[in-house]
Recover the amino acids of this structure.
């Protein structure tokens, strides 16, 4: 009976390009017996009726869901591996495609919001906890294989076993396989394109933290700067002061004063313009505060070799500084040093030094977390497409890192080949993976589909800004290095009033 049900599904796939596929609840319930997945245990196959689904562990209830088949897998490529993965597959109206979604930070949990969004769009969609259940990197102490699972193996295994699960239920492999991740998920995106180029046909990489070690020195360096002395600390109330000064200097450089800096990299803002002439007040910065702010913007260089590790933050990011230069170190980078670089040792973020500790940090990484290889030829040559985006006001991952990576891909592949397979969008005013003071809501997945499936190269993408649920501004996002230029007529809050041009 099981083979008959699954076979019928295959007929629907072939006859109607998957849109009319219907899978019975019995096929879902019996799927475990049809799966033969390497190093994988099928924990559960459960049909979920349309409507609401309450994830385990207190995650937010997901509503407005179609009926789907929920499959829980435990993948163990090594004796110390315990990779939990879920695959959600629509019982009707499957779009014929497979989507894997990424994890932020140190992973540690299934991404139920992203699973729900994917299955609503008709995808068979998968998510992994990356092989552990902690919010930091403490899982890695004494467990090197778990660090490898987190670093790259969990997502790869999820792709392989997830696609096999999809094929077993529907009787046909997905026509296209995509990956979508931001921040830590953007790092996973780079890992997949570089290390496992055959896993996905196209990939979205938002705010890709592809060199976590280098950025850790930059991020820890910011809080070192604001904690160098008691006088160095910048009170959050002064962030708006610095932000206004940066906007006053840089906003209108693109020809339009609209509350957005189109190209912050071209703005040489110096916070010294705010230095107090006398005593400290809320309207100025003390000399130690000026120096701290300068370090937040500054490029990080290895003093021994002159190697540039990473850029700093950009003008326009100031309203987000509390997360990286406030009272406590950023948890993700703090955990890298605490649990991966110096496990079990006493250490203080104030003592971290590039010259003293860079080599140890890179050795601890050992290529497990880093995804810095610019040779994307194996990915691009098989039709792979990499769509990158990054907010110019990002506080967690310096935005120029994405520009730098694109430049390296162009140097490696050549301009024509790179443009064939890689596109980057730099988003004015947007913070880390969203938010901020500019239009920051957009649909990159639809753009990726058009690019990979129909050869439609990415062009302007309309982004929206909302307040209290209402759209207050739209603006085209432009393929880098183009920027949105005002046409001279029409509302500056309407995307139709702008064109993408070279800066």
């Amino acid at each position: 009976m099981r083979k008959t049900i699954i076979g019928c599904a295959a007929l629907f796939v072939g006859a109607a390009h998957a849109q009319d596929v219907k899978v019975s609840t019995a096929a879902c319930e019996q799927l475990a017996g049809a799966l033969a997945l390497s190093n994988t245990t099928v924990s559960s196959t459960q049909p979920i009726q349309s409507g609401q689904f309450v994830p385990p562990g207190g995650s937010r209830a997901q509503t407005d869901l179609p009926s789907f088949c929920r499959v829980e897998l435990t993948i163990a490529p090594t004796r110390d591996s315990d990779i939990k993965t879920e695959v959600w597959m629509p019982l009707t109206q499957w779009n014929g495609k497979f989507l894997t979604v990424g994890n932020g930070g140190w992973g540690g949990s299934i991404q139920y919001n992203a699973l729900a969004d994917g299955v609503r769009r008709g995808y068979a969609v998968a998510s992994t906890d990356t092989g552990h259940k902690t919010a930091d990197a403490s899982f890695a102490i004494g467990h090197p294989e778990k660090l490898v699972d987190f670093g790259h193996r969990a997502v790869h295994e999820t792709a392989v076993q997830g696609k096999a699960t999809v094929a077993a239920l529907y009787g046909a492999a997905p026509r296209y396989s995509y990956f979508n991740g931001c921040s830590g998920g953007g790092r996973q995106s780079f890992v997949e394109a570089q290390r496992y180029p055959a896993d996905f046909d196209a990939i979205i990489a938002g705010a890709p933290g592809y060199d976590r070690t280098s950025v850790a020195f930059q991020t820890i360096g910011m809080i070192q700067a604001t904690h160098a002395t008691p006088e160095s600390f910048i009170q959050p109330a002064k962030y708006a002061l610095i932000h206004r000064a940066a906007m006053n200097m840089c906003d209108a450089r693109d020809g339009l004063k609209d509350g957005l800096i189109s190209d912050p990299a071209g703005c040489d803002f110096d916070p010294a313009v705010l230095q107090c002439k006398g005593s400290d007040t809320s309207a100025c910065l003390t000399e130690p505060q000026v120096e701290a702010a300068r370090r937040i913007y500054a490029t990080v260089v290895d003093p021994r070799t002159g190697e540039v590790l990473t850029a700093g933050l950009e003008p326009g990011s100031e309203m987000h500084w509390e997360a990286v230069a406030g009272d406590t170190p950023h948890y993700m980078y703090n955990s890298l040093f605490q649990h991966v670089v110096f496990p079990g040792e006493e250490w203080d973020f104030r003592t971290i030094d590039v010259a003293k500790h860079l080599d140890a940090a890179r050795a601890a990484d050992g290529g497990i977390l880093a995804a810095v290889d610019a040779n994307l030829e194996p990915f691009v040559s098989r039709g792979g497409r990499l769509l990158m985006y990054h907010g110019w006001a990002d506080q967690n991952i310096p935005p120029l890192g994405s520009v730098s990576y694109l430049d390296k891909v162009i140097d490696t592949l050549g301009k024509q080949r790179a443009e064939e397979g890689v596109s980057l969008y730099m988003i004015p005013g947007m913070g880390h993976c969203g938010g901020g003071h500019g239009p920051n809501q957009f649909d990159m997945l639809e753009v990726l589909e058009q690019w990979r499936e129909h050869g439609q190269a990415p062009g302007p993408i309309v982004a929206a800004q909302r307040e209290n649920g209402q759209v207050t501004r739209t603006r085209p996002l432009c393929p880098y290095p183009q920027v949105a230029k005002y046409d001279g007529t029409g509302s500056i809050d309407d995307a139709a009033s702008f064109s993408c041009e070279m800066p």
